[in-house]
Amino acid sequence: MASVPFHYVELRTFCYATEDTKRVESALRRFLPDRGEDDPRDPVELRWSETEGFNGDRIIVLSTRLERTGEISHALRTLAAADEFERVLDELDDRVDEDCSLFLSLDKQAAFQGRTEVGEGITLRAKVEAYPAERETAVENAREAFAGLVERED
């Protein structure tokens, strides 16, 4: 199994007309690696798209897709720092679908404040490597990967 058994991690959030765009971007960037000015790698790019809500109000969708091992590892280590992470591990059977994707909602306000909490506002979708591509294999691979992250945090 690969050191990070995930093909990619996608993160997405909405910025409503009542929210500060820079704060929402900051919340999403909590899960992205911070690249210094002397880092030769390209920064993680956020995609911005604008849509309209039911009442005609502006909604900006911020999203990114992490495919590099280091970027994925950073996002997962940040996730593993959540106080409720044991609950996430207990719920893995319910959070991985038949396409081997792991779904999780994270608290946008907590992320802006520098904390990682399960909640509403930021959607995480991680495609778990599984050979054969079966849900049970994906759950086990995700469980092993997260267990390794928790051990490194201790």
TrEMBL record:
Signal peptide residues are none
* Pfam families on file: RNA_binding
Q: Which InterPro entries match?
A: PAB1135-like, Ribosomal_uL5_dom_sf
User: Know the name of this protein?
Assistant: RNA-binding protein
